[in-house]
Automatic annotation (TrEMBL):
UniProt superkingdom: Bacteria
SUPFAM superfamilies named among the record's database cross-references: Aldolase
PANTHER family: FRUCTOSE-BISPHOSPHATE ALDOLASE
GO biological process: one example: glycolytic process
Reactions catalysed, as given in the entry: beta-D-fructose 1,6-bisphosphate = D-glyceraldehyde 3-phosphate + dihydroxyacetone phosphate
The family this protein is said to belong to: Belongs to the class I fructose-bisphosphate aldolase family.
EC number per UniProt: 4.1.2.13
Name this protein carries in UniProt: Fructose-bisphosphate aldolase
PROSITE patterns listed in its UniProt record: ALDOLASE_CLASS_I
Lineage of origin: Bacteria, Pseudomonadati, Pseudomonadota, Gammaproteobacteria, Salinisphaerales
Pathway(s): Carbohydrate degradation; glycolysis; D-glyceraldehyde 3-phosphate and glycerone phosphate from D-glucose: step 4/4
Record organism: Salinisphaera japonica YTM-1
Alphabetical list of Pfam families matching this protein: Glycolytic (PF00274)
GO molecular function, one term: fructose-bisphosphate aldolase activity
């Protein structure tokens, strides 16, 4: 492990006013996205869509890193240049999703555990050769009347820590993503309580695996009420609850926090991030690692048609620019109506 390499990569990703594009949808997930615009999920169509995103002019002013799916890491742009090189040449750090997805947790099948540790050391070496400099692993925590159990939190925290240690051994910055889902009926206070439990266990596990905090990034959920909750919190309430929870549980040594959007609308995810950054300097940088919240307008504009590429790129550029502003607390809703 080279601590300076890890620190430098983490700080590069956390460049002011920039964030991460999560373009790491699994084959099943990207198939659903493409189906929403009546496009078949062939390798050629997946490549064409990612090519659209990665070759958008000027987006590197707002995007510092891109998380790729394994297939995408080894694909090339239309001109034959490997996608990882396309990104690196624009000053964007290529990354890779390395987990193998959430599966039923043994003896607790209503809860999930993320798999993919077997063979990870060898895979990381191949990913590094292909140009990946950071990685991502997602743990999934659900909220119900009985969940999450301590068992679920502990096992996912342990897996996240083992993954992070293997990444750092390979000089790859780990993004640690413990996602408390917003699918339930819970209120914002319940989300804050559960998110705090999860973060506490995750950082205990990271410490137990000797993970260098200065050489990692955290990708948490925002503290937000469940989608089915009858009481949705305001933007200010979400910002205050999220920052309160993070200050209690995330060490100041962590250089950056890059939020997932978690199913929020495009504009709401931007507004929440902006509100947090408007509250002044925090112990860590606050930015974004959005997938659908960056891509949805571009996907809708593209419709799988070559003649729509330019307008789709403009839609993606706009969302990237607005979120870059939110990462500095300078976003306003007026920017949504701007050309």
């Amino acid at each position: 492990m080279n601590p300076e390499t890890l620190k430098n990569t983490a700080h590069e990703i956390m460049s002011p006013g920039k964030g991460i594009l999560a373009a790491d949808e699994s084959t099943g997930t990207i198939a659903k996205r493409l189906a929403s615009i009546d496009v078949e999920s062939t390798e050629a169509n997946r490549q064409a869509y990612r090519n659209l995103l990665f070759t958008t002019d000027g987006v590197e002013n707002y995007i510092s890193g891109v998380i790729l799916f394994e297939e995408t890491l080894f694909q090339s742009a239309d001109d034959g240049t490997p996608f990882a090189k396309v990104l690196a040449d624009k000053g964007v750090v290529p990354g890779i999703k390395v987990d193998k997805g959430a599966k039923p947790l043994a003896l607790a099948s209503d809860e999930k555990i993320t798999e993919g540790l077997d063979g990870l050391r060898e895979r990381l070496a191949e990913y590094a050769k292909a140009g990946a400099r950071f990685a991502k692993w997602r743990g999934v925590i659900d909220i119900t009347d009985e969940q999450p159990s301590d068992y679920c939190i502990d096992t996912n925290a342990h897996a996240l820590a083992r993954y992070a240690a293997l990444c750092q051994e390979a000089d790859i910055v780990p993004i640690v993503e413990p996602e408390v889902l917003m699918d339930g009926e819970h209120d914002i206070a319940t989300c804050e309580r559960v998110t705090g439990r999860v973060l506490k266990k995750v950082f205990e596990a990271l410490d137990g695996q000797n993970v260098l905090l200065e050489g990692m990034l955290l990708k948490p959920n925002m503290v937000i009420a469940g989608k089915k909750s009858q009481k949705q919190a305001s933007v200010d309430e979400v910002a205050d609850a999220t920052l309160r929870c993070l200050r209690r549980h995330v060490p100041a040594a962590v250089p950056g926090i890059v939020f997932l959007s978690g199913g929020q609308s495009d504009e709401l995810a931007t507004a929440h991030l902006n509100a947090m950054n408007q509250r002044g300097e925090q112990p860590w940088g606050l930015s974004f690692s959005y997938g659908r919240a960056l891509q949805a307008p571009a996907l809708a504009a593209w419709q799988g048609k070559p003649e729509n590429v330019e307008v789709a790129q403009k839609a993606y550029h706009k969302r990237a620019k607005n979120n870059g502003a939110a990462a500095q607390g300078s976003y306003s809703s007026d920017m949504e109506s701007a050309a």
